[in-house]
């Protein structure tokens, strides 16, 4: 028999609306820190079209404003193309910019391929107003180390526009320059999933430990420069999970506001060398497909803006519930390619069936995932546990699953499944020991002053915005988990 998860800890936050200061209001203007993680990309390298391989086209110079010695005038025929060979010093994301002019009023779409793979279908090259008016259009791609071929092929009988050049902005070193030295993100750089492990830029498995926020629509006031400073320096956390609820008064009520809040949190965490889990906190309804269109919009913007950062993880479905694994998998397989088009390298975390219990709360097990995994690389699956509710059955599935699947515990509590009631520190410690041994990363629920026992601060702490460090404002669960985050990290660098 399964002990079905009763209710989620984040539910029914009656007091929340009374506390609903927005994050923007809670942060002084000076909190808008500069973000060392957002390093300027390397200078763009320009590849002239007149020096590239041309099929069905000619080099002209009769329309002013071009760079180099001319531009390519595509023949007015489908299939005419220009192909550049470019050199990348390392594999990674890059932005292609094509400079073109189209003196007609009609779009001249082109397919763009990188190393023979189509990365854009019928990309628009609309009229620019005149043959002497040059514009650029950009595209995010991934390059391999060494030589890469980039081809722009006309898809209509008008042929391509006139093309002046291709320029390429390489993203910064995926090792993560710009992160404060000595910080978790500075030491480990860009993470990736290898086998069942999360590995750092040296290819070594690491464990991240940190805190999840509460719903930002309710507890944005707990995420201030002071509280994040304490999290990074007093708690010595490695990672912050930013929980953007979709419903329950969250994202769907004001997408601009909640997306901007995430941007801010990413910059704040990046400035402190923390990893950030961007948590798309779907919960009610439990089928993540309900929010697929919203998720595409949200993650497209987040990934586009932050793709050069090396300290992110995208959690695309917090706790699917009342929905089959097949539907969760289908959701992930529709959303991940959209994210990867903007940001091909950031790991993605996928929620599992029945409140991210690996299916256990629905009477299933990890086998439904093992036998039918999400068709994508560089992903992990999430497991959530609440120690006073989730005993041996959950523990055993989790332990076994960790040897077969890459897992990240993006939520756990020392309380019951609703995040309240008595703490079971013994059972929680058993999970923590297992996670340390298997290098499974975790974030604890939650860094707020909600009245429940699982919110680490005593009620009212976030309103004063002063006593973040130390233990004076912590509940017992807060003292306990702070002690377990503060212990020395083990981050291999060779
Ligand atoms: C004009 C123009 C060319 C351009 C061509 C086209 O001939 O001068 O530069 O390539 O139109 O329609 O493609």
**Could you state the CATH homologous superfamily of the largest domain?**
Glycosidases
Bound molecules: alpha-D-glucopyranuronic acid
In round numbers, the mean pLDDT is 89
Numbering strands along the chain, what is their spatial order in the largest sheet?
A: 20-19-18-17-16-15-14-21
Radius of gyration: 25 Å
| Model regions low in confidence, pLDDT < 50 over at least 5 residues | 1-42, 172-177
Global shape = elongated
Query: Main beta sheet, described?
Result: 8 strands, parallel
Q: What is the CATH architecture term of the largest domain? A: Alpha-Beta Barrel
Concise description?
The chain is an alpha/beta fold and 494 residues long.
How would you describe what is shown here?
The chain is of the alpha/beta class and 494 residues long. It folds into two domains: 21-38 and 175-486, Glycosidases (TIM Barrel); 45-170, Jelly Rolls (Sandwich). 24% of the residues lie in helices and 25% in strands. The protein has 13 helices and 21 strands. Helix 5 links the parallel strand 15 and strand 16. The radius of gyration is 25 Å and the shape is elongated. The two termini are 46 Å apart. The model is unreliable at 1-42 and 172-177 (pLDDT under 50). It binds alpha-D-glucopyranuronic acid. Residues 60, 63, 73, 76, 131, 159, 162 line the site of alpha-D-glucopyranuronic acid.
